[in-house]
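dumping this here before i forget
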Amino acid sequence: MDAKECVSKSDPEREVVISDTPVVESSFKQALEVSITTGLNTDHDNIDTIDPNAAKRLRWKIDLRMYPILFVIQIFSFLDRINIGNARIQGLTEELGLYGNRYNIVLFAYFIPYILLEVPSNIVIKKTRPCLMFSWGIVNMSMGFVKSFTQLVVLRTLLGVLESGVLPGIIYLTSMYYKRHDFQARMTIIFFGSVLAGAIGGLLAYAIAELDGHCNFRAWRWIFIIEGAATAAVSLVAVFLIVDWPSQCKFLSIQEKALLNRVLAEDGTAEARMDTLNKQACKLIFSDWKIWLGALIYFGIGVTAYSLSFFMPTILVEFGWKAREAQVQSIPIYAVASAFMFSVAWLSDRYRHRYGFVMLCCVLTTIGFLLQLCQESLSRDARYVSLFLLAMGGFTLPPLSISWLANNLSGHWKRAFGAGIQVALGGISGVIATNIFIDSEAPRYPTGYGTDLALNLLGGIAATALFAGMLLENHKRRAGDRDHRLNGPVEEVGNMGDYHPSFRFTL
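structure:
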């Protein structure tokens, strides 16, 4: 029995290790009480058994305490990022003169700081700080008062700075609470916030259009003002609800933390730790081919989601619907995509498999892009259906690819850097998406759809390479071909993360 995982029968003290912070109990009697309370079977013949009902109750408690507020934060984060697409067709373009590539530049400005600050934010972040949420809400609201293209670019850049740590911080925090094959469905809940933000954005824009001209403000200004103010207001509540790291959280008792530690250890990651950031750890992190392939997957498939988020209102208008009608027509697309996302998440966790579902989504988006590239011979209804295919595949792939990489990284620092690198490189797809839909190519957008298709295929190729590499590595570890790694110094063996030969990869 590993000393880090359990109570020694003869030791008067017990060390409960959560993440990288120990909690010490003062007596064996208290340790025994912890075991009983957390659902450990204290029968001498089977002292290590975890009561599945106790583990399930703990999981539900964490779910209900953690995800509602993170879900709301993700909704407002993504809504404030993409509402410019709704504002564009409600008068923004005409009033600020966003013709030619100016709209693309405004979108592009957001992603420069967003990409550069992803990794640093995840190194220093201790929680998703509500003060940042309040700040980006005020910035978003301020966009409703801009007078020029330059002012809008400056505010979009600042928005990228403030939102850069949100998603990697959420990924990092939540991955510390769950077993690997409980994570996909929960990651989908967070990304569902992004999809729901698109639907809510369309519905809100439809309603806010009624305010056009009120107080001498055009409808697009009201979109920014109202949605930014709502974000700032929610942040004042969020400060009391966001949870901390497992070792420091206050909503779990000592007994529940002990049970959580044992549940996570049972997931096969107890020996694959990386709690110290040193030269060896940095080498293992930055030379890990899984991180770079995972980032390439997210980069390739992320272009689709960003393209839809920023340009779907414009595309629907070009189908022949008026601005307010186009806002409403986007809602069924987001609804169907959401149902598909949760179905894939449930199946993926149930069967403990990722690759096949990644490829299914890639096939759907490929068909959707091919239909759009052949749109001249298609009816409006057929083109509308193609958007459903693009949304189903495009919005499901990001949480699927993120959870797949997170499943295959073990250790405190490995996950921190891995999530930051993946989301940072994925952010480059946002830069591309903002520049490939060119006004002069409307409504066919061959550059936009063609680039999206090519990068989608690149993501599928990277996923296949990741699958093959991990399949081969699992085979070598089962055969004992990696056991020589255990011959190094104890401090290195205990800090190698998923490089440890006992770790098995999720395919």
